[in-house]
Specification:
This protein is 79% helix and 0% strand. The chain is built from 8 helices and no strands. The relative contact order is 0.08. The protein is an all-alpha fold. It folds into 2 domains: 3-91; 108-186, Arc Repressor Mutant, subunit A. The longest helix has 35 residues, at 73-107. It has helices at residues 3-14, 19-40, 44-63, 73-107, 116-135, 138-149, 154-161, 166-186.
């Protein structure tokens, strides 16, 4: 794409003409979604969300002047998609690591774990987690203990707590878990 065409797109977007965005959706959406799914084992829904975010990023980059040269819209959009997916994957990895840390601290047996200092450290963290859980609302406390302590499935938790589906239970569990981690961090409970 030459700079004249990019200037035309910039002017059209500045005037509120979003027809180019619709064209990008029609032309490049399925390609980007399929490649994300194939190369990164991404879900269809996540791939669609990432593509939408990539289009918004591209539009914003054009409007604010960050994008001054463009050889291929398809390549540029997919590069944004890939970067957004990697950010998402890293965020999910950190969340999983934090969940595993809390699980380890909350549900490990204190007896027989390493030396005296390690046992005291785990006992301290266990007390902090219990204290934070006791001060959380009933819904969060129930979801966290049901899932991590009693190892109930999301379907069982949804049924037990009257949620519409396992996805609703999973979303609420994620929010509660983030709340638990935030409260633990505010108490300086480190991994």
């Amino acid at each position: 794409m030459n700079s004249h065409k990019l200037n035309q797109i910039t002017q059209a977007l500045k005037q509120g003409d979003n027809s180019i965005i619709k064209e990008w959706y029609v032309t490049y959406k399925m390609y980007c979604v399929k490649v994300l799914i194939a190369k990164h084992s991404c879900s269809f829904e996540l791939a669609e969300d990432i593509f939408t975010e990539a289009v918004i990023c591209m539009r914003d980059n054009i409007l604010c002047g960050k994008l001054t040269e463009l050889k291929s819209v398809k390549s540029y959009l997919f590069a944004i998609c890939r970067n957004l997916f990697l950010v998402h994957a890293n965020k999910q990895k950190r969340i999983l690591e934090r969940q595993n840390d809390v699980l380890r601290y909350y549900y490990e047996e204190v007896d027989g774990v390493g030396n005296q200092q390690e046992q005291e450290d785990i006992t301290y963290k266990l007390k902090k987690v219990n204290s934070v859980l006791e001060n959380m609302d009933e819904k969060c406390r129930t979801i966290i203990t049901s899932f991590y302590l009693y190892r109930n499935s999301m379907e069982e938790i949804a049924e037990k707590m009257g949620f519409a589906s396992r996805d609703v239970a999973k979303t609420i569990k994620g929010r509660c878990f983030k709340k638990l981690l935030t409260l633990l961090e505010s108490l300086n409970v480190k991994r």
